C-alpha cells in the first residue's frame, strides 16, 4: 500500500507538470525580440500637402482672410484664399518653400486718369516773313540747307499759321557787281504758282552769285543794303505778324552800322512788326563784334537774336519768330 501510494503521488505530480508545460512543446523562442508594429498615421486631408520644411509635422489648411484694398475702396474684396500653413513656423507666416501656396490676391491699382490739356493749340496769326540771307562764300552751308528744306519750310509754315507769305533778299558784298537778288513777298499758303516761283528762286541761289567783276576783300557784307531792301517790300494787307530775319556770319560795314540799327528800329515800331537776326559761326571761334552788332539790331527791331543751332535754316527761322 505504501508503494502504491508513492507511485500514485509521483504519477499525479508528473501529470500536473505535463499539463503546465504542454502548450510550450514545439514553440521556438526567438533570439531577438520582434520589432514593434508600425504606427499608421491618419492620411492628411485631400487639400493638404506635406510640408517640405518639416515633413513630420501634420499639415493643416489655413484660410487667409481678405483685406479691403487701400487704393481703391470700391474694388470688390476677393474671396478667402486657402494656403498651406506649417504649424512648426510661427503663425500666420505661410510656408516659404511649399510650391502649392497660391500667390496672394492683390487688388489692382486703378489706372491713372488721363491728363487733360485745356490750353488752346498754338498757332501764329496770319504771318509774313522776309528772309535776308547772306550768300557769300562762307555761307555755303546755309544756302544748301535752304534748298534742301524749302518744301518742308512751306508745309511747316502752313501748319502754324492760317496764311503765310514769304519774301527774300539774297545779299553779298557791296563791292560785288550785283550785291542783291530779290524775291518780292508773295502768299505761299495759297496759289500754287507762288510756291513754284519761290522754289525756283531758292534753287537758283549759289554762293558768290553776283560777284561778277567785283570783289570781296573784307569781312563786312552788304547788310545795310539788304535790310533797306526788305523794309521797302510790301506786306500782305491781312498779315498780322511781320518779321524780317537777317542770316549772316559778318556785320555791316562800319559806316553803316548806325544806319542799319535805325532801319531796324523803324521796321519794328508798328504793332506786330519785328526784326530778328541769326548769327552763323563759320570760323572756329565766335566773333564777338559780329554777335554784338546782330544782337543790337534785333533789340532795336524788337525781335530775337538767334545763334545757329547746327545748320538747319528752317529751325533758325522758327526760333527767330518768337
Could you give a quick summary of the protein structure above?
The chain has 322 residues and is of the alpha/beta class. It has helices at 2-21, 140-160, 192-203, 223-231, 257-268, 288-300, 313-321, and strands spanning 60-64, 81-85, 127-134, 164-171, 180-187, 241-248, 273-279, 302-307.
Kindly list the characteristics that best describe this protein:
single chain; 322 residues; alpha/beta; 7 helices
Could you explain the architecture of this structure?
The chain has helices spanning 2-21, 140-160, 192-203, 223-231, 257-268, 288-300, 313-321; strands spanning 60-64, 81-85, 127-134, 164-171, 180-187, 241-248, 273-279, 302-307. With 322 residues, the protein is an alpha/beta fold. The protein has a domain at 127-321: 3-Layer(aba) Sandwich (Rossmann fold), CATH 3.40.50. The strands form two sheets. A six-stranded mixed beta sheet has the order 5-4-3-6-7-8, sandwiched between helices. A hairpin with an 8-residue loop joins strand 4 and strand 5. Helix 2 runs antiparallel to helix 3 and helix 5 runs parallel beside helix 6. It is globular and about 75 Å long. The relative contact order is 0.11. The model is unreliable at 25-29, 83-93 and 111-120 (pLDDT under 50).
